[in-house]
Amino acid sequence: MNVLFDLVIALLxxxxxxxxxxxVFFIYLYIKDDRQKQHSILRNFPVLGKVRYxxxxxxxxxxxxxxxxxxxxxxxxxxxxxxxxxxxxxKDRLVGxxxxxxxxxxxxxxxxxxxxxxxxxxxxxxxxxxxxRIYVEEGDNLFSRKERSEEKLINPVYLTxxxxxxxxxxxxxxxxxxxxxxxxxxxSYGALGENAISALSKGLAMAGGTWMNTGEGGLSEHHLAGKxxxxxxxxxxxxxxxxxxxxxxxxAFKQKSEMEQIKAFELKLAQGAKxxxxxxxxxxxxEEIAKIRLVEPGKTINSPNRFKEFDSPATLLHFVEELRNxxxxxxxxxxxVGDLDALEELVAYMKESGECPDFITIDGGEGxxxxxxQELADTVGLPIQSALPIVDEMLKEYGIRNRVKLIASGRLxxxxxxxxxxxxxxxxxxLARGFMISVxxxxxxxCHTNNCPVGVATTNKKLQDGLIVEEKQYRVCNYLVSLxxxxxxxxxxxxxxxxxxFERKHIVHKDKLGRVxxxxxxxxxxxxxxxxxx
Length: 534
Prior knowledge:
The protein is of the alpha/beta class. It has helices spanning 2-35, 40-44, 46-67, 78-89, 194-207, 250-257, 287-293, 313-327, 340-353, 374-379, 384-397, 415-423, 433-438, 461-464, 469-494, 519-533; strands at 107-110, 124-125, 130-140, 145-154, 158-159, 165-167, 176-178, 182-184, 212-213, 230-234, 262-268, 279-280, 301-302, 331-335, 359-363, 405-409, 428-431, 507-510, 516-518. The chain is built from 16 helices and 19 strands.
């Protein structure tokens, strides 16, 4: 009896403690919030204020996973995110019961022909096969998902030699031949962690026919891990091609140009809306990154918003010529279109002098793997579907379009978006965030904090442990090959035998009233408006 009594007393004490601790903690928070002077809502309503701040904190996650429908959410909707994940994990783009696109909204559409190309009529090179791994679902229940990864041989879906895109074909000692239209946009080591960069390098190499842009942060061993082809990006900070004083080093540049894996160089004048220059928080600048970039470890990096080496079309293009002569490899520039007068001045000088970059990468203002200020991200720089046709048309007007390849970049993460960009004038397409999603990005939008929860945009070793290179490399490969498959499907529907043959005539724009306008008509109207303004 005494034992039972003791147990009851002990139980009551435990219950009392369990009740007392939260009550004491609640009273403490109430008094603390009531006395603080920083937050008005907490001072007037300590309890409701806490609930408000808690809800506000988890709001982005609630919207992403519960409240937004599949076509909502920025910068990418849930549907767009899932399209990438499915392509990378399952190499699958099939949908059931119809499209989720809102056909009442305005947008671009691809013109299909009455007599599409048969698969046997497509000019595609499917050798050699790629050995990859693809997930197969065995069950998908509410509380569990059963799936297995299995090895599979897949077609690489390369362009044929006759349709391959060649950078620097008539200008360089070492031109760069590409049998695929899609590559990885600039993402620096430091902005992304070593596991993410390594997985991307190996996955791209596995897929072949592509390239990896280093970003402005210099070349690391992780970029070289898969032995994929490299476009070395040179930003205003000159990371990797400068001396200890921060000045451009021709010796360092020559050393880089002699590396077989580096196939071309790109001068980054601007990136997305990052006219401010590159930015990496100090806590992401490890000893290794500092050594690659020739900067001080642990110190925040803010590179200049433009090069000191040139400040006009003439000095820019002279620098391009010098780089090409020294390296013997294609040299391009990366721009964001804004000031059309300045753009035309550049193109006019290209025509007058005969000095042209081998390629121009056009980054839409909607681009954004890196950190930038809100006012720049939201307003500076034209989006890719406006910028790309402008540059294409301007080069044609000056008769030099055949001398310069155009690479388009800006949220082009699915085959249809890429096909529209090709029809608007792009020769090649860059992707950044699509590849980030393929290696595990969940769009947490904390890229600039070094706290990426999935180990992609972080140098934190503990967080990077979640990103397994040997697994994610296959997803990168599958995603890229899936994009190429989709492009050939769209080409066949449009009645052409290769996606390299997309032209303006293959797309139309439908407005909210259902009216359809060819792209040439839209460009003509825009050009007429510009002339009237001048």
